[in-house]
## 1
Amino acid sequence: MNKKYACIVFDDGPREPMLEMINKFIKNEFRCGFAIIGKKISDQTEAVLKYAVENGFELVSHGQNHIGLPELSKAEIELELLSPINEIERRLGYKITSARAPYLWADESVFTVCGEHSLPLLGQGITVAHDWEDAVTAKEISDSFIKNIYDGAIITLHVKYSTCEALDEIFAFLKAENFELLTPTDLFKVKNVNPIPLDRQITRV
């Protein structure tokens, strides 16, 4: 069976249960990305971010305040996207190299800023059950993921307990189907994506 590759980027970190999610990935020898909201970076959350980086996970900018970028001026878009990057670099010495727009909402002004700063904008490659909603169960999340996953997909999920619970069934399916989960950067590398597009949200490779 041919090897298949995909990437999950979990939005809205750092928060619980990010550490538990990281450890599940490590146990299964998978990796992923975490889209980080700048205002959630603190002395209290720094440890889990450092742990993620030290174990081969990728951090992604998810804006400073998780607000709709197209409603902002160009200077404000830059501030939103770059503030988490600068804070993570200051605290961890780690350089974030990609972003995801809050609410997956982007327009030409956002793409212009991303292009000027060589910041690929990661999108949503498959439709998964609305895992950000409290009423959605782990079973609904895993069933939806399994139904829709394909080789080369970049997937949007969230740092939430129901999503963390769903990972067990998701990982079992992916291993049976010869899938490997990679960070965004490693997915681009294994799929020979060079240069990485900067003029749109990247949903698949």
Note: The chain has seven helices and seven strands.
## 2
Amino acid sequence: MTVWIVVKLLVVIAALVMFLRRPSLVWGIGLLSVTTAVLLDTFLGVFGREELLAELGFFFYIISGVLFAGATLWAWGVLWPVVGTAVSAAAAPSFAAKPSPPEKKQHANRSAAFDRQMLYDEIRHRFGREDVLDLIFDLGLNENDVMPLDQNINQLIINIMDRAEENGQTGGLALAVERILTPPPPENLPRLEKIDIDSPATILRHYLLAHYNLDQLQQIAAELDIDWEQLAAGSKQTKVRSLLLYLHRRNRIEDLIDYLHQPEDGVV
């Protein structure tokens, strides 16, 4: 009996540790389900299982059903990133049929599922929607290529990960996620004179976010003959991304670089 109690206690501690490491609704449901099940089992063992079951009657089945539903939701939330990824990959024949060297395939079988789930959890539970859109921008993806019709954020994340792998950007995806979670401080960004038309778009995005406020960004738009109101409405994060996308689609990034290099650029 003592060993069984220790095992149940270890299960509860393991669920608590996972919740503290990944505080989310999924792991909260798992912790609550496990703790309630352990407490109920212990309660029945201490006070007499048969007598209490007779007292609880149909209510016991309600409690059991709730616990089963909670465990099912937890299992689905944990397994969905891997299952959803496999389904998404199966739905893309051209990507699935793409040959790969034996050593690359062996490495993928060993670590891809873990890496994908880790990245999925980071994005799903720590990113806001604007952060996800920034991730699409930093990877140079077209929003229309990855955005699901129903705007489902889970499927959007999976689509981004699939497209990044298809483009050979797995390492770039992990780096982009890290930089969005912990943006580089202004002093670690390239100096203005080092930024040119060949600089990565993500460098420009981080530079504008770090050195310009909304009023100064609006002034830049005016100087470049861009209607500020035509850019996507929202925070500075949204405006910077929208401004860069506007210029990129019209091959005018060089105009922005030239303006920034002017002495009166208004750097804070």
Note: The radius of gyration is 25 Å.
## 3
Amino acid sequence: MNGVLLVDKPIGWTSHDVVAKLRNRLRVRKIGHAGTLDPMATGLLVLLIGNATKISQYVINQDKTYEGTLRLGQETDSYDGEGEVVATHEIRVSEEVIRRCAQQFLGDQLQLPPMFSAKKVNGQPLYKLARRGETIEREPRLAKIYEFLIHEVALPSVTFRVACSKGTYVRTLAHDMGQKLGCGAYLSQLCRTRTGNFRLDQAVALDNLLAMEYNEIEHCLLAITDIL
């Protein structure tokens, strides 16, 4: 089995969980994903199966689009809803100020990777250090925000769409926006809707895939030649 499989990842699963489950289900050794999704995030997870793993560098480097929700007025240690609330603030910002603030993030940004992330420092994932209560210095990394569109403001929630470069931490974007607004914020919901030319509406829900026969899953694969 060789090709690209587009999966609609449910909440609560790590990207590694999805890969491990389908590796066992399909009885294939070479399988990986092209861009991690946090357990709390849903949406498009691009899996590369068999010989398709050889084109991973081309897929991983693609831009991404997300739909999400910010929760203003609170900060968490993980920058998302899975962490512990570490600060609470009064919200004294208008919808107009929120929309203007979002536009300030367009273009190149230096982001500090959150401690609760899979980024490795000296071979150790940051989240393992964070779970032990450790905080270490991290090197900022360059991200590019192409679009940061506010859909609706219904305080304390703000829904949005963001299009960004590979490696952008949307959790960090949420946290940084909260700092700029002066009221704190964290990412309460996130769904990836696009990776390069792949779209969420092309993906198959994980539960449906796991209920399919081997040959049915094979029919869901995108050919490597078509991708290239």
Note: Residues 3-62+196-227 form a domain with the Pseudouridine synthase fold (CATH 3.30.2350.10).
## 4
Amino acid sequence: MSPAHPTSLPTFAALNDRWQPIGSLQALYVRAGKEPAPRSVAEVEAISGCGLAGDCHAAPLSPRQLLIAGTDAYQRWGLAEGALRENLRVDFSTSGLSSGDLLRIGSDVVLWITFLCEPCRLLERRSPGIVAKIGRDRGMLARVLRGGTVRSGDEVAICPAMAPAFSDQWQTRVQQVACAVPEGAWISFRQLAEMAGVQTAYCRAFPKVLAQLPASVAARVRSQRSAASEAPWSGDGFFGVGMD
């Protein structure tokens, strides 16, 4: 099942008997755009299709609206509080989560697990040596499917493999977004990076990745300057997973 097409999930009420409790929410963090580090909060509003209210990563076209990290990673590597720069810290290992899983936080909020968050150079600059230390233990990224208030201490439950899955390989995600652009439309390199969940620094590698696709598909990805007179694709439908 591909996230490039709208998908209807069972209604929230229909999932009542399928949720499996797996732990609880230990801490919450939000970082506004100009704040140097995430700040701890007791509760925050999760906005459907956008992310956490006031957080710099909240964006309708992003598969990485928030980051979930496990307390086990902190204990295993002896990390300082907030070192992984997560939004949600849970008391179970995120290694047991897979893309396409749904998490219920409290009684209302539902998150769609998208893909693994690998340590980046920005994290390394802030905490030298952390990338080599934690490897794949940073956590899992997610989108908000159903909004509501998230509170520290909330119970967390899982409904496995209910939503479309994403690849952990950024090249595959870039190609998937490009293939979803409708015929006759186009997408900028910057928007492609956002929708694939990669930093804009990756844009320089896009031509090589896109060259593996049919030329007619690769041609739909352009620089903003070369298509300034035309409106780009809105991205409508790519994250079209619905839950009533």
Note: Residues 7-159 form a domain with the M1 Pyruvate Kinase; Domain 3 fold (CATH 2.40.33.20).
